[in-house]
Design a protein that fits this description.
The chain is built from eleven helices and ten strands. The chain is an alpha+beta fold. It folds into three domains: about 15-80, DNA topoisomerase I domain (Viral Topoisomerase I, 2-Layer Sandwich), CATH 3.30.66.10; about 80-110 and about 230-329, Topoisomerase I, Chain A, domain 4 (Orthogonal Bundle); about 115-225, Topoisomerase I, Chain A, domain 3. The protein has a five-stranded antiparallel sheet with strand order 2-1-3-4-5. It has a three-stranded antiparallel sheet with strand order 6-7-8, with helices on one face. Strands 9-10 form a two-stranded antiparallel sheet. Helix 3 packs across helix 5 (about 185-195). The radius of gyration is 23 Å and the shape is globular.
């Protein structure tokens, strides 16, 4: 099926209005949709709590429905084929990131070992944290609206340092109490110098007498600069999720029955959810390349004796091995 790009609320579509226990769907002229269209719309399973709902009148639209959830966030229902294509691109990007990291890490380490609290050095510390524990980037809007923190909005009180051990504890997205630990001499020294007081931003560089906190824009630009690729902080989470799942399966070993295999996969998904601070459903659908499970079913495991990045590339193949996606018209 060739998909059609649409613009929610601007392209032609249907509205939804509650009528007692049911919903009524009407076209742009206010006329009720016919029985076939009503059946198609109901099968989209648009959450009842959504309001300001727009539904495409095209079954092949790349966006099938849009609404605003109870928290005031716009949510989308995409065509399954569009999701398949985009997911393929996302996991392909994660492989390219894995391929770029050895070279990127060399420059990051050099920057981390500097003597001054420069912009480059502080961003190198942020990169190292992304690379080792894949913390969400965070942002001012999440902090203002929900009081939750990410990498760019960490405060001095969220870090404790003992020798080369760095511990981070902070309220993360969805109310998760995030807690991570990294053993890294260079990182510990940099963060120890960067930390000023419990209530000030941890990741901020010195500009004369001022301290300038990093932003998500700064972080993503630095990721692109170091990797020489069009990557963002979120790609690290996809790569980490995929690697964590593959390594969990390898540690459990191959299963002899379908039931045992399903149990091993559930444990691998839970390991990813625990590491990334997501639900198992989100971890599986958004952060684990499904090819990991296909290889496991075929009796193939990641090599635990080599670096995780090399191992995942050896298991899944170099970038380009995913099927080429077909775009929307």
């Amino acid at each position: 099926m060739r998909l059609k790009r649409v613009q929610p609320y601007s392209s032609s579509g249907y509205t939804r209005r509650r009528d007692g226990e049911r919903f009524r769907y009407r076209d742009a002229d206010g006329k009720p949709v016919d029985a076939d269209e009503r059946r198609r719309v109901i099968e989209l399973a648009i959450p009842p709590a959504w309001n300001k709902v727009w539904i495409s009148d095209r079954a092949n639209a790349h966006i099938l429905a849009v609404g605003v959830d109870a928290a005031g966030r716009r949510q989308y229902i995409y065509h399954p084929e569009w999701r398949r294509v985009r997911d393929g691109e996302k996991f392909e990007r994660a492989r390219r990131l894995a391929e770029s990291l050895p070279g990127a890490r060399t420059g990051v380490t050099r920057a981390l070992r500097g003597d001054e609290l420069t912009r480059d050095r502080v961003l190198a510390a942020a990169f190292r944290l992304l690379d080792t524990v894949a913390i969400r980037a965070g942002g001012e809007s999440y902090l203002a609206e929900n009081g939750t923190h990410g990498l760019t909005t960490l405060l001095g009180r969220h870090v404790s340092i003992s020798g080369s051990t760095v511990q981070l504890r902070f309220p993360a997205k969805s109310g998760v109490a995030a807690e991570v630990e990294v053993v890294d001499d260079d990182l510990a020294r940099c963060l120890g110098e960067a930390r000023r007081s419990p209530r000030t931003r941890l990741l901020a560089w010195k500009d004369g007498s001022k301290r300038v906190p990093i932003t998500t824009i700064d972080l993503n630009a630095y990721v692109r600069e170091r990797t020489l690729g069009d990557f963002t902080a979120k790609d690290f989470r996809t790569l980490h999720g995929t690697i964590t799942a593959a390594r969990s399966l390898a540690k459990q070993g191959l299963a002899s029955t379908e039931r045992e295999r399903s149990a091993c996969i559930r444990r691998a998904v839970q390991a990813v959810a625990d590491e990334l601070g997501n639900t198992p459903t989100v971890a599986r659908t958004s952060y684990i390349d499904p090819e990991v499970f296909d290889r496991y079913a075929a009796g193939e495991l990641i090599d635990l004796s080599i670096s995780p990045d090399s191992g995942i590339l050896a298991l899944l193949g170099r970038p380009g091995s995913h099927g080429a996606p077909a775009g929307a018209a």
